[in-house]
């Protein structure tokens, strides 16, 4: 985890360490650029049950955690967002160590009809856009008038990070939102729950006027570490489940084996795996 970079992020530390702690992880190590080791980050580390803190950031921190050094023992799983260099380091070291997801610049997709409050949408888009020069906030609106009102309210210095799309057909608007597969998806629509039958791609969905994505950043949880770059089509956000793994337990009785072994034997023969077939037959016949 690397709560540093452009800003100091005690919130990110909490939203990565707490799910790990709830999952029963015994060792939680944090890496952070020295300049970002603030009192707030240290307090968050204490609250989150962090056991180790290392003052190193960027790709070097990812490599140290994945491979290990004399002073930093290797870990089994690395979680948390970072800049493009951190993400590339995670990509290259995947397999050497577990990786939560390859998070890119933060993004917001807003789906809105004529009932939506323009001032809320503009404020939420600006909040998302301030994360990073590459962050994007996208409005897909059924109302041309709403698009104009929102455009006028967005701060000029952030306007180039905001995209405003007018799409009068509800079905097409939802299809566009699905295609963008945003990290955060805010729905300002009458009967917003009705959209969820067809709006499936998003890291987290925020519905109604009182559920801005910023509340997901700080208060609503469970974690604001979410899939970006359209990966919400197939990936999920960080949660307790990220820190758990599944194993299968197979315990076949002799009676059950005698009923089922022949089906497995025929599959092994079909695949041409002779030793597989022999291993199966050895338990029911001495002629192998």
Describe the structure.
With 288 residues, the protein is α/β, with parallel strands linked by helices. The protein has three domains: 10-99, Rossmann fold (3-Layer(aba) Sandwich); 107-234, Rossmann fold (3-Layer(aba) Sandwich), CATH 3.40.50; 247-288, no CATH class. The chain has ten helices and nine strands. The chain has helices spanning 10-22, 39-47, 58-67, 84-93, 118-129, 144-153, 170-180, 213-218, 254-271, 274-281, and strands at 29-31, 52-54, 77-78, 98-99, 107-112, 136-141, 162-166, 184-188, 204-207. It has a five-stranded parallel β-sheet, with helices on both faces. Strands 1-2 form a two-stranded parallel ribbon. Strands 3-4 form a two-stranded parallel ribbon. Helix 5 links the parallel strand 5 (107-112) and strand 6 (136-141). Helix 1 (10-22) runs parallel beside helix 2 (39-47) and helix 3 (58-67) packs parallel to helix 4. The longest helix is centred in the last third of the chain and has 18 residues, at 254-271. It is globular, with a radius of gyration of 25 Å. The chain starts with 9 loop residues before the first helix and ends in a 7-residue tail after the last helix. The mean pLDDT is 94.
Instruction: Note the main sheet.
Output: 5 strands, parallel
- Strand order in space, largest sheet: 7-6-5-8-9
* Mean pLDDT figure: 94
**In terms of per-residue confidence, which ranges show pLDDT below 50 for 5 or more consecutive residues?**
none
Order of helices and strands: HEHEHEHEEHEHEHEEHHH
- Structural class by secondary-structure content: alpha/beta
CATH topology of the largest domain: Rossmann fold
Strand content: 5-15%
Give helix % range.
25-40%
Question: What is the overall silhouette?
Answer: globular
- Strand elements, count: 9
Number of helices in the DSSP assignment: 10
State the fourth-level CATH superfamily of the largest domain. Nitrogenase molybdenum iron protein domain
Distance between the termini: 54 Å
Just give the CATH class of the largest domain.
Alpha Beta
Compute the CA-based radius of gyration.
25 Å
Structural domain count: 3
- CATH architecture descriptor text of the largest domain: 3-Layer(aba) Sandwich
């Amino acid at each position: 985890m690397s709560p540093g970079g452009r800003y100091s992020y005690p919130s990110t530390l909490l939203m990565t360490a707490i799910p790990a702690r709830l999952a029963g992880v015994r060792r939680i190590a944090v890496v952070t650029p020295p300049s970002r080791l603030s009192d707030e980050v240290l307090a968050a580390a204490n609250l989150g049950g962090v056991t180790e803190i290392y003052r190193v950031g960027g790709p070097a921190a990812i490599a140290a955690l994945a491979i290990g050094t004399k002073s930093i023992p290797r870990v089994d799983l690395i979680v948390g967002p970072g800049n493009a260099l951190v993400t590339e380091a995670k990509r290259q070291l995947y397999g050497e160590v577990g990786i939560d997801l390859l998070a890119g610049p933060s993004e917001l997709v807003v789906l809105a009809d004529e009932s939506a409050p323009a001032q809320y949408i503009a404020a939420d888009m600006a909040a998302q856009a301030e994360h990073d020069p590459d962050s994007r906030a996208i409005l897909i609106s059924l109302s041309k008038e709403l698009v104009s009102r929102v455009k006028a309210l967005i701060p000029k210095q952030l306007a180039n990070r905001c995209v405003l799309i007018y799409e009068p057909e509800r079905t097409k608007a939802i299809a566009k939102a699905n295609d963008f597969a945003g990290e955060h998806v805010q729905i300002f629509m009458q009967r917003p729950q009705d959209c969820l039958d067809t709006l499936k791609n998003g890291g987290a969905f925020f519905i109604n006027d009182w559920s801005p994505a910023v509340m997901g950043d700080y208060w609503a949880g469970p974690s604001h570490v979410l899939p970006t770059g359209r990966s919400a089509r197939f990936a999920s956000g960080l949660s307790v489940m990220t820190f758990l793994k599944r194993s299968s337990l197979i315990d076949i009785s002799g009676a059950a084996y005698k009923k089922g072994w022949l089906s497995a034997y025929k599959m092994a023969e079909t695949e041409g795996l002779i030793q597989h077939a022999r291993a199966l037959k050895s338990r029911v016949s001495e002629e192998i």
